Amino acid sequence: QLAQELALGRLSPQPGLPEGLRGQLQALLTPDAARAAELRAECSRGFEGIVRRLWPQLEVVVVGSAHGTERIYCDALRQADCQGLPFYCPFYRAAGALLGVNLWPEGSMPQILLCPDWAFCEFLPCPAKEESQTVLLDELWEGREYGLVVTAQPGEYRCRAGEVLRVTGFHKQCPLVEPVRRESQTLNVRGESIPEERFCQSLCRALGMWPGACLIDYVCVESSLLGDSSGPCAPHYEVFVELQGLRDLSEGQRYKLDQCLQEDFPVYKSFRFKGSIGPLRLHLVGTGAFTRLREALGSPVPMPRVLREEQLLRLIQSSVIS
């Protein structure tokens, strides 16, 4: 369709594209049959590395976020469409405020330099205790993790951003940080507290045992959100994944994720052994399920990894194919 519209010099209505803006773009287009033929030829060669083949002068892919579980999207692009291209995440935002900048575009991992005059930041040492006091930029220690508290202009006063940052070093006297997880995305049905990024690591490890499978996206649900529909069973997790390369999951494949969690989290394993936590239930959803979920979320926020709303749960449940 893209090649056809390029050849004809037109832009059809698209979901999320306002009609007025589409009209403005349409006025700028002219038919380009040669470029359309080039596009068809490159697509016929496959889509690995297609971005670089179509735009050979492209030097870098700029992304809005490459932290925590958002990396799965960058990894998917690196392995397919954007093969051979570096990725650069220039800024760090939280709680509606711009907080830091990545001055090292060639680095393999984003290093965020917190800018003291962009917003007022305080930090709660992790793990937080009742008597914990916030510390300031000049009191941070390399290698430690802190919960972020932000006062922004305009914005909220001393707002807990729900982000946990790890101090990775210093640039002159300013700390460099790496966002590692969102506190609201922790799985917890019996006090086991499995952090977002570590669950993702276990999921990716299990995925490596499923030949041909490539992770597109995932979300989790704690069984308490399911209500009576979960049946008479112990509290447990339900995980919804969209995969490329697999159309069905065997019982053995489904069990691998629960097994990986038990290996990676001794507390979870203990609760599973005692029956206090039931076996994880893994569901495969159809293509486009997470596109619809993003549309339902509205604003362009990072994908939640633990759903807390029944409406979103019903939406993802309606897409289950296995």
From TrEMBL:
Domain GH3 C-terminal residues, every copy: 211-296
A cellular-component GO term for this protein: cytoplasm
Sequence ranges assigned to domain GH3 middle in this UniProt record: 113-182
Annotated GO MF terms: acid-amino acid ligase activity
Extent of the signal sequence: none
InterPro entries listed in its UniProt record: GH3, GH3_C, GH3_M
Name by which UniProt lists this protein: GHDC protein
Species of the source: Calyptomena viridis (Lesser green broadbill)
Taxonomic lineage: Eukaryota, Metazoa, Chordata, Craniata, Vertebrata
